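Q: For a teaching handout, I want to show students what a protein-ligand complex looks like in token form. Below are the inputs, and the small molecule is uracil. Please produce the holo structure.
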Amino acid sequence: MKLVKLIANLGYGSRKDVTAMFREGRITDPQGEVLYADDKVGHDAIRVDGEPLDPPPGMTLMLHKPVGYTCSTKDPGRVIYDLLPPRFRLRSPLLSSVGRLDRDTSGLLLMTDDGALLHRIVSPKAKLAKVYEATLAQDLRGDEGAVFASGTLMLESDTTPLAPAALHVHDARHAALTLTEGRYHQVRRMFAAVGNHVEALHRSRIGGLSLGDLPAGRWRLLDAGDLDILFGANA
Ligand code: URA
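A: Here is the structure, written as tokens, with uracil included.
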């Protein structure tokens, strides 16, 4: 790929902007030698203003999504892209979230520009476990675990019953729910179906991957080892 296109696709600017950056001598090799737009060099050998390029396509990251942010590019309020370097919003291929978390849900959100990987994670066949920590408005009745595990619970306006889900009760108002599917507002609707209300919701795990000590609002790139951990728990 031509250098102008490669750099523009990483969100550094339009092709016109990047052409101007070449002319201004802002694009160099690691030794500071000015590069030209028709040079043939690899991603790793390019610096912009002395800094290495952002990761090439095939980038996957985890974000600790705080409450109050929407998984959208367009929402007029706070969006998850506000928590990332501004260039990440302009990349091609697009960096998108792997599924969504509600605005009022916090926790582990994966983002990738790799369509095949995204499909592999969300595919119902993968049955990747997602763990949600729920804080409830009412005390648990005691039968919720059996209802959720039954494989027969039908949510309003759905046409098929939910797959069995595992409830782990911490105390009367706190429980972890493990799902292998991802329907719209699923956790909130499941607790509503058993007469309760979710006051706070946090996703703590997807497959074998958790947030570790990543603080709310922060992100980190994932490497091949992280992806092994992600899928490993279900191997
Ligand atoms: N279930 C919900 O209700 N909300 C989420 O954000 C994720 C799962």
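A: Two things your students might notice: The chain is about 20% helix and 25% strand. The chain has a mean pLDDT of 96.
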